[in-house]
Amino acid sequence: MIKILVIDDEANIVRLVRDYLEQAGYRVLIASNAETGLHILRRESPDLLVLDLGLPDRDGWDLTRLIRADRQLAAIPI
After folding, report:
1. In percent, how much of the chain has pLDDT > 90?
2. Is the separation of the CB atoms in 4 and 46 below 8 Å?
3. Is pTM, for the whole model, over 0.70?
4. Contact 3, 27 (CB under 8 A)
5. Fewer CB in a 10 Å sphere around the end CB: N or C, the chain?
6. Distance between CA 54 and CA 60 in Å, rounded?
7. Phi, psi angle pair for 59, to nearest 5°
8. What is the widest separation between alpha-carbon atoms in the chain?
9. Contact yes or no for 12/19 (Cβ under 8 A)
10. For the chain, what is the mean pLDDT?
11. What pLDDT score was predicted for residue 11?
């Protein structure tokens, strides 16, 4: 089953995105901040990342640069 990680701090948006993705047959992982999202990325190796740019602990663009600089994570589509 394809795994998608959604990193967003807005509960309503997360719920909506999760519902649509699960209805489409995907396994959805959720994180509400960048630190937790990075931990899940490393542990679960999702097939796709859906990322909010305005996270409470780190800018989404910053997180994208960090992911792209990490050899283990760089190939994950965002």
Report:
1. 97
2. yes
3. yes
4. yes
5. N
6. 6
7. -65, 140
8. 33
9. no
10. 96
11. 95
Tens digits of residue pLDDT in 21-50? 999 999 999 999 999 999 999 999 999 999
For residue 65, the one-letter residue type is R
Grouping H, G, I as helix, E, B as strand and the rest as coil, residue 6 is strand
Which residue in the block uniquely carries the two structure tokens 């679960």?
44
Is residue 7 a contact partner of residue 50, using CB atoms and an 8 Å limit?
yes
Q: Which tokens in the block code for residue 70?
A: 């990490």
Say if residues 46 and 40 touch (Cβ distance below 8 Å): yes
Query: What DSSP line would sit under 31-75, residue for residue?
Result: ESSHHHHHHHHHHH--SEEEE-SB-SSSBHHHHHHHHHHSTTTTT
Structure tokens at 7: 């990193």
Task: Determine if residue 25 is left, alpha or beta; phi over 0 gives left, psi from -120 to 50 gives alpha, anything else beta.
Answer: left
> What pLDDT sits at residue 57?
93
Residue 24 confidence (pLDDT): 98
